[in-house]
Structure prediction request, 352 residues.
Amino acid sequence: MIDRNHLRTAFTAGLGNGFASITGLPDAQYVALAVLSVSSGTYGTSFELGRQRLLGTVLGSVLLLIGFECLHTLPIAVGLAITLGCLRLLGGLLSLRVGYKVGGMIVVMGWLVHEGNLASWIPLRFFWTVLGVVLTVLSLRLFWPARGLTQCFGRYGDLMEQLQHTLIALAQRLEAQPATREPNPSAPAATFRQLRLTLQSARSQRPALVQELGNQPERHPAALLVSNLDATASRLVSMVGGMERAVPSQRDPQLVARLHQAEAELLEHMAAQVGIWSQQLRSARGLPSPPPQELQLPRSWLELGAELNDPVVNSASLDRLERIASRLVLCRQAEQAIRGGESSWRAIMARR
Prediction:
């Protein structure tokens, strides 16, 4: 029921309240409010929320001072409406998604509650907000560090592990080929759907990663590596979907058994390789190193050309040959995706 993020947030808020009580300064509740509003799952997201909260605080304070000084002779409802409208307009121009809400609270509270001591209340409010944001960002670096980089690579590592199990299952299906049991039509769709969900979950971590990479994040090696992983994973997931739809016949004649055997051995080798990818991504501290060895192709797959030219194989039905050809094309695309992904991975790490 309680995870690390909740414990970190509670500890940080308590630390801020403890410091505020020692100082004895008023309006200390804004420390905890800043911590609760800024704390999130990753360092990058919290940093962006903190930046927007600080910008909203500054914008709201400036407009409060200008609006209260210039519009205090108008009815309160009119003056507040004009000031809040200007705040919303300027917040939109500055691309503030949440900061203008903080500025709106400052305008309303300052105008209605603290109109007599704005000169002291605004600096205190800004000080407590800055303290809460700083404590939150530091807690994400010191207590159970939660960086978007680690989480993003971890999600892609989970996806590679699922792909490993799926490729092994596909190879085992080719090797077993039961003659009496019909395949479960819902299992392939469920496997492909789960892979798609994991891929989408990995992609959802990319915005937090981009926020951590500073200026020109698209040129950062981490962003380039994530894009390479995403492209490779997307091709492998699509390959699994195609392989699941092109299920081999349950009564496989011996004339194409060698083709299926080569396909199964290739799937096993690819499963072992993506398993190494998963280990590299999930155990990395920073940028993960590429696999120590490239994908090794089985001898049966390398000699597949001779098998395809066998006149015995070509005597199979046209429908059967089309199904086999589609599966072999998918295997070739998956092999090229892994080899190309590893080549790009090494190039990225060499340029950093």
